[in-house]
Amino acid sequence: MPVIEPEMWWGTLGTLRPFPNFKPEKDARAIQVALERKDVNTLVRILTNRTNAQRQDISRAYHTLTQKDLSQALKRPLSGPLEDLLLGLMMTPAQFDAHRLRQAMEGMGTDEETLLEVLCTRSAQQLRDITVAYKQEFGRYLENDLISESSKDFSRLLLSILKKEQENMQGIIEYQLIDRDFTTLTEALSGKKADSTPWIRVLTTRDSVHLDRVLSRWESVRGETVDKALQGRFSGDLKLGLRILVRTIQNTPLYLAQRLQTSMKKSSVLFGILVSRSEEDLLSVRVEYRRLASTSLYSAIQKQFKGDLQLALLALCRAEDV
Name one GO cellular component term (predicted). Predict the structure, then answer.
């Protein structure tokens, strides 16, 4: 019997769709043979043409067949960036994001933009799942690591994004709340020193539809983009964080396309976005990338990468945009 995945449907903005007539036992046997023959091309073909849920089924079928862990087995014939990519595909979405966050905080210095990309573009439920996965994968508390790796104001922003606790606004009419939030944000920038607290509170306790209306109101009334206003009144990591949070609220695919355009040579950024958005909105990211770069994401990948790694990345990207 084919495996039915109710969370996916035709018409999704993701590039990966459920593989038809999916049989995890058949895929597991094909992967077993490919591993014995060090047939990397077959590994790439199968794993980049299945959804994450299907890959998890393959992993379980492989373990039943061989009594071995598939991710560990994949390390033998693979190396370098291709190994990183395929092992990332074998993780659950929450595990993958947890690993990206940990990598952003390990070693010398912190990769603030990767922290922000992950935290700002995930739903409240996804962030709760990531927090659980982080503890399971590393035996550490995500909140504590974010605090230890960032300045006081920046960590306050990160933790507010991570928790995304909705304020109770029952009894307040929508247009009244828009007016109130607009006034709150305006007053926070009107003093000699800008106050980040109201911005953090409003941007992390309202739903995205409401926030988009508030930010649109700001730009129409004040005659400048919110991004420009924040750039002129804040500094350092806090400025970066507020600007990215606003940009993801206004247009997440555009922000991700901009990130790809400026970081195409940084494979961890490309891998992170392709893997995490391939079942969500990668088609929209591709459209925005084409507008920004005057070339398609597919063509950019062809130009930048070669061999089996190129094939894997192109499979996730899926198609050319003319």
Answer: vesicle membrane
